[in-house]
């Protein structure tokens, strides 16, 4: 989950893109502000990483933890 104009989101997206690219895992980003339910649930925590719809982490990418979860 990301937000327009969010510097931490930009950093997290770059990290996720690199890690997923190295592992061959598809990924996508969604604008937290595009849905009122997402905004209510995740709006104060962006960027938020979800894996298969389950919250994995927020604010910063923990690279080793993300890699382990994607393997």
TrEMBL record:
- One Pfam match, by short name? Glrx-like
- Which InterPro entries does the record associate with it? Glutaredoxin-like, Thioredoxin-like_sf
Name listed for the protein in its UniProt record? Glutaredoxin family protein
> Where does this protein come from, organism-wise?
Amycolatopsis silviterrae
What are the top taxonomic ranks of the organism? Answer: Bacteria, Bacillati, Actinomycetota, Actinomycetes, Pseudonocardiales
